[in-house]
Design goal:
The chain has 430 residues and is α/β, with parallel strands linked by helices. Helices cover 26% and strands 27% of the residues. The strands form eight sheets. The chain has a six-stranded mixed β-sheet with strand order 1-6-3-2-10-21. A hairpin with a 2-residue loop joins strand 16 and strand 17.
């Protein structure tokens, strides 16, 4: 699950998207009146990840050209954070999680490769780093996450080459994998885990599993230390069972009850100090506390670190013509995940299309499933369904894999995740 900000100029490349919407609340609304006399309503989407790409595609596709859709995204190749841990583990290669925007463009979405650097809510324009402004009638922000300054003592983004975060996939993923492969025999890998809330709650622990999977083959006497501010984490029993069964003696998790939140790092000396104890390490993965991507703050729709939204249509509580999706928003019970962002995007797309064209808007329904790989053919999952209430997106029911499951069940769960990845990326990018 991740996202962006973007720019271009007077050249905007047009095209569309795909599928059905699970949708937003209300029923039928009258089409908006375009104040400045332009012929078609205009939707601008900032961020081309699971939320933004999905929203852009669905609005363009389902409006059948009745809405002008512009997607602002700085990168030409998008690397999914989901499944990037499998790249670290050597289960997949980096190109398998790389996606372009060509099908979106050929489908009717105007794809602008630039950075969005500001929003004028009165004028309803988005400013681009390359110059110029893009007007909108509805603005959808899906910028993913940025990191909280000073969240880990001794680390900031200037240290990300020495101690990668790899929580925005792509070059950081490749860097961390190369560092792991270069570790001396019997060396130590340390992870500084983030506090809640953060992108993909099981993500750091799947990462530990995949690093252990790789080290078991290439460096079997290596050690893994996790410094974690939390006393518990997503799928905790499943991961701890998996580490004991597959990587016995390799993984040392230090939770918040044992000083895991009292951490500082020294990228120059490659040390991690946990509750006063200095540990010399060979590779360190620092995953800091997170906040909404910067453009959400610049647009004035954040309250603290996140952007509060209305559950029925993902509209900002600060501005009804701005919608915020995915990791950047504060919405209630859904985790920050790629699946969640994709689900929210369909609700948002249906609501925005209804508001601008008068088409039917369906009641909002949401779902999420998060798969994690522990070892070869060993997958686990957690998920839930949700509904919109006046207060928040509220959990209706849920499920989770069980400890002690048979090997064939775990294999089927892993294979299910592979099918899901293929399906969701097609849903996002066409």
């Amino acid at each position: 699950m991740w996202a962006r900000r973007c720019v271009s100029e007077a050249a905007i490349n047009r095209r569309v998207f795909l599928n059905t919407a699970t949708a937003a609340a209300a029923t039928v609304s009258a089409p908006a009146v375009m104040a400045d006399g332009h012929k078609k309503p205009r939707v601008v989407v900032v961020g081309g990840g699971a939320g933004g790409a999905t929203a852009a595609r669905y609005i363009a596709k389902d409006s059948k050209g009745a809405i002008d859709v512009t997607l602002i995204e700085p990168t030409r190749t998008y690397y999914t954070c989901f499944f990037s841990n499998l790249v670290l583990g050597g289960v997949r290669d980096i190109q398998s999680i790389a996606h372009s925007y060509g099908k979106l463009a050929s489908g009717g979405v105007n794809v602008v490769h630039d950075w969005a650097i500001g929003v004028d809510r009165d004028a309803k324009t988005v400013s681009l780093a390359g110059g110029g402004k893009v007007p909108y009638d509805k603005l959808i922000l899906s910028p993913g996450i940025d990191f909280v300054d000073g969240a880990v003592e001794g680390w900031d983004t200037s240290a990300q080459n020495a101690m990668p975060h790899a929580y925005k996939a792509g070059s950081q993923t490749e860097l961390l994998r190369s560092q792991l492969l270069a570790m001396p025999q019997g060396g130590t890998f340390a992870m500084v885990a983030p506090p809640n809330p953060f992108r993909c709650p099981p993500g750091p622990y799947e990462r530990v599993s995949m690093v252990a999977h790789m080290l078991k083959e290439t460096n079997p006497t290596a050690k893994i230390i996790i410094a974690d501010p939390k006393a518990k984490f997503s799928k905790m029993a499943l991961f701890q069972e998996g580490w004991a069964d597959n990587y016995a003696g390799m993984v040392d998790w230090i939770g918040g009850d044992f000083g895991g939140g009292n951490v500082s790092v020294n990228p120059h000396d490659m040390t991690v100090t946990i509750d006063g104890e200095v540990n010399k390490v060979d590779v360190c993965n620092v995953i800091p506390a997170m906040k909404a991507g910067l453009i959400a703050d610049l647009a004035g729709v954040t309250d603290g670190n996140w952007a509060p939204v209305n559950a029925a249509d993902m509209s900002s509580k600060a501005d009804a013509d701005i919608h915020v999706l995915g990791d950047a928003c504060s919405q209630g019970d859904m985790p920050k995940s790629g699946f969640s962002a994709n689900s929210q995007a369909k609700v948002c797309a249906n609501a925005v299309r209804g508001a601008l064209t008068g088409s039917k808007v369906f009641p909002a329904k949401f779902s999420n499933t998060c798969w994690s790989m522990i070892d070869t053919d060993n997958g686990v999952k957690v998920g839930a369904t949700y509904e919109a209430t006046p207060e928040k997106i509220a959990k209706v029911d849920g499920f989770i894999s069980k400890t002690g499951e048979a090997a064939d069940v775990r294999k089927a769960t892993y294979e299910e995740s592979v099918g899901w990845y293929s399906g969701i990326t097609s849903d996002m990018f066409g």
